């Protein structure tokens, strides 16, 4: 099984910086973690995924149709991991034919609500039911994200309420803003926290590894890719 070689580097003492041996680089397979982002239309799923993968807030967005597919390669403890983010559609008519694909072989789920819109918070239970209805294993980590915290005067969902809900569903809560550049580290932390948990969990199969069921995937629209290095924020 190929893994990152962070462990090897730790005791190396040969003056080589930690991380995979460059000579072995072509042979080190990159693990891919599939993370889906779910929630009502207009809560900011596209903007959050854009902020994480591209580092910016998109000037203008349109309702997502089906799924948009973004990627970012991160490095944690010497292992390069490809984070494959599925930005799903919140509108029923744009998602109904895709729902099975969203949940198939998913590694982690991000539930998003808009802190300025109570209905997007109360609807979370429907999104959780949908997720549960697709037999997502309990080991698959889930987090809750309250977006649009920059709109301070318009907040409708108190943090205390969100925290209670997150606790009841065994999720971590992040409150953030895809728009505010000062919050960008917080947005990164959402995904990095999940990646760290997945990395620590079990040895997930690598790309091209036998035994990993092939996914009939929709033709992905790859919008951007960025590389980032990070240490575990957890
Ligand atoms: N103020 C503020 N506006 C935001 C933020 N995130 C997103 N928006 C705005 O909210 C609107 C919807 O954002 P999207 O990211 O397209 O929403 P979505 O959840 O992807 O919607 P669907 O694709 O229809 O499911 C856009 O006008 C964004 O500019 C934020 O953090 N703060
Ligand atoms: Mg969208």
TrEMBL record:
Main enzyme class: hydrolase
SMART domains: RAB, RAN, RAS, RHO
Disordered: annotated span: 1-23, 207-234
GO molecular function term, any single one: G protein activity
Keywords: GTP-binding, Hydrolase, Lipoprotein, Membrane, Methylation, Nucleotide-binding, Prenylation
Cofactor(s) required for function per UniProt: Mg(2+)
Catalytic activity annotation: GTP + H2O = GDP + phosphate + H(+)
GO cellular component, one term: Golgi apparatus
EC number(s) given by UniProt: 3.6.5.2
Any one Gene Ontology BP term: Rab protein signal transduction
Compositionally skewed regions (Gly residues) per UniProt: 1-16
Topology within the bilayer: Lipid-anchor
Location of the protein in the cell: Endomembrane system
UniProt-listed InterPro entries: P-loop_NTPase, Rab33A/B, Small_GTP-bd, Small_GTPase
Family classification: Belongs to the small GTPase superfamily. Rab family.
Family annotation (PANTHER family): PTHR47978
Entry protein name: small monomeric GTPase
Source organism (scientific name): Lamprotornis superbus
Classification lineage: Eukaryota, Metazoa, Chordata, Craniata, Vertebrata
């Amino acid at each position: 099984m190929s893994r990152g070689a962070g462990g090897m580097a730790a005791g190396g003492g040969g003056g080589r910086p930690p991380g995979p041996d460059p000579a072995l680089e072509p042979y080190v397979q990159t693990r891919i973690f599939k993370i889906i982002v779910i929630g009502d239309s207009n809560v900011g799923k596209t903007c959050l995924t854009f902020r994480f993968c591209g580092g910016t807030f998109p000037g203008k967005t349109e309702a997502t149709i089906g799924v948009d597919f973004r990627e970012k390669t991160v490095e944690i403890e010497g292992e390069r991991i490809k984070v494959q983010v599925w930005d799903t559609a919140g509108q029923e008519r744009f998602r109904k034919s895709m729902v099975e694909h969203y949940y198939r072989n998913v590694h982690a789920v991000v539930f998003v609500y808009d802190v300025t819109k109570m209905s997007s918070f109360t609807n979370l239970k429907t999104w959780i039911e949908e997720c549960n209805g697709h037999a997502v294993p309990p080991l698959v980590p889930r987090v809750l994200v309250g977006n649009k915290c920059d709109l301070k005067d318009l907040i409708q969902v108190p943090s205390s309420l969100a925290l209670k809900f997150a606790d009841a569903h065994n999720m971590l809560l992040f409150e953030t803003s895809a728009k505010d550049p000062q919050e960008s580290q917080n947005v990164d932390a959402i995904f990095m926290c999940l990646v760290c948990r997945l990395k620590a969990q079990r040895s997930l199969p690598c790309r091209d590894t036998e035994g990993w069921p092939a996914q009939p995937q929709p033709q992905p629209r790859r919008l951007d890719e960025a590389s980032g290095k990070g240490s575990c924020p957890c």
